[in-house]
Design brief:
This is Helix-turn-helix domain-containing protein. This protein is mainly alpha-helical. The protein is built from three helices and no strands. The protein has a domain of about 35 residues. About 50% of the residues lie in helices and about 0% in strands. The longest helix is centred in the middle third of the chain and has 12 residues. The chain is globular.
Length: about 60
């Protein structure tokens, strides 16, 4: 029995995802767009960015 097919809730971040997060954040991409690109919740992306000391463009 597996978890739901695409739900990423509480999944550990892989190194490639972290690199992508850093790349997108440095490009000034909005939180919503980064979350969609990484198929993660905005909350998860925000928490990870904060943990890495990474500023993310605010939603406008």
């Amino acid at each position: 029995m597996s978890d739901s097919k695409f739900e990423r809730h509480r999944q550990p971040w892989r190194q490639d995802e972290i690199q992508k997060l850093h790349t997108l954040a440095k490009k000034g991409m909005a939180l919503k767009a980064i979350a969609k690109a990484l198929t993660r919740s905005e909350e998860s992306v925000k928490d990870r960015a904060k943990a890495d000391g990474l500023p993310i463009a605010k939603l406008r």
